[in-house]
Amino acid sequence: MSESTKYFLPEDRMPKAWYNLAADLPTPLPPALHPGTGQPIGPADLAPIFPNAVIEQEVSTERWIEIPEPVREVYRLWRPSPLIRARRLEQALGTPAKIFFKYEGVSPAGSHKPNTAVPQAFYNKQEGVKRLSTETGAGQWGSSLAFAGSLFGLEVEVYMVKVSYNQKPYRRALMETYGATCIASPSTLTQAGRDILARHPDSNGSLGIAISEAVEVAASRDDTKYALGSVLNHVCLHQTIIGEEAMMQMEMAGESPDVVIACTGGGSNFAGLAFPYVRENLKGAKVRIVGVEPASCPTLTKGLYAYDFGDTGKLTPMVKMHTLGATFMPPGSHSGGLRYHGMAPMVSHVMELGLMEARSYHQTECFAAAVQFARAEGIVPAPESSHAVKAAIAEALRCKEEGKAETILFNLSGHGHFDMQAYTDYFSGKLIDPQFDQQALAAALEELPKAG
């Protein structure tokens, strides 16, 4: 067996196609429904906010979708990303388990998000779009789309959840460095934002609200389209380059994972690593696949599988997903990228089919795991990624107790260099564990649309 720590694929072995799990699902996804009529939507219904190429990918059931050469050319700035054996963490834990992580923090924006930002910007540019509007939680997606927009000459307007806007000023600075405009959400620039502020003047915002604002802007301007950083099928599709690379790199290491782990907010980095392994499980492999979410926003572990809107303003199509309710307001936390009321329909479907597990952790225990990881491996994880780190450590300690030398693979979806205030709060004892409000959940679920 190789004694290497890092496993690099040469650029000429970078995957040339994204993998589409829709081709292999034992039962198809329930259709998305029109927010007005409640009927299944068609491509024409999505045309006001998405370019045609993205719409085609959203509804495609083709197994492999070619990555355009201009997109692969940009990917080469950081892809293939490294697979790393966490040998020092294994030693610190005293575990017989082998721990590997796919490190997506090497991208220019510091996370996995450019894997979909670049193709979305490319397809919009191809179709003559001038501007993109989007939302962002922690800022990873906003900075990634800002980066992609700068490469293809597109204006980018980002509605950033207000609690994160205030917590993470350097994410805003990064977006502005790439040429984007960053706006705290809810804002007074849109009707959706004004409506929220009229009811809740001190609102910290949420991804659901920020999506409403960005979609409203795209739908009201002919020169603008909307770009989404997670949840939808085409986003999950673009991220599968992570898992496809990881499979080849695990083969280079002479290993095959027993457990695959990723954090889950909207579902994109989880889908990116896990969906290729779901495919192999459907062929007879036996890999445990684990999604990890915050206890303060536990979509998979406490949400209802039902039709719901993707945004608080109820402007988006209704999709069947694990949801806490579009009006549910997750408490503020430093894992802004995981504060979303719903889970990707494809990930939710995989959960319903029993093809994955889900668990949740409080943010202080995730930060403790992140610090332990940083002191062993040297990389400071993003708060979102710390959930996957926590689960990987838990699995490694289980192996220690059981005396099993299992192989664990997790996605380190981004670095935490822009999140050091969160670490400062953790070290000073200011970081608390927001409590999940069951009454607020019940109230939000009462407002679910009567669909499906």
Blueprint of the fold:
Elements: E1 6-7, E2 17-19, H1 43-46, H2 52-59, E3 64-66, H3 69-75, E4 83-85, H4 87-93, E5 98-103, H5 114-126, E6 131-136, H6 140-152, E7 155-161, H7 162-167, H8 169-177, E8 181-185, H9 191-199, H10 207-220, E9 224-226, H11 233-239, H12 241-252, E10 259-263, H13 268-282, E11 288-294, H14 299-302, E12 304-309, E13 318-323, H15 345-352, E14 357-361, H16 363-377, H17 386-402, E15 407-412, H18 420-427, H19 438-446
Parallel strand pairs: 5-15, 6-7, 6-9, 7-8, 10-11, 10-15, 11-14
Antiparallel strand pairs: 1-4, 2-3, 4-5, 12-13
Short structural summary:
This protein is of the alpha/beta class. It has helices at residues 43-46, 52-59, 69-75, 87-93, 114-126, 140-152, 162-167, 169-177, 191-199, 207-220, 233-239, 241-252, 268-282, 299-302, 345-352, 363-377, 386-402, 420-427, 438-446, and strands at residues 6-7, 17-19, 64-66, 83-85, 98-103, 131-136, 155-161, 181-185, 224-226, 259-263, 288-294, 304-309, 318-323, 357-361, 407-412. The strands form 4 sheets. A 7-stranded mixed sheet has the order 1-4-5-15-10-11-14, sandwiched between helices. A 4-stranded parallel sheet has the order 8-7-6-9, sandwiched between helices.
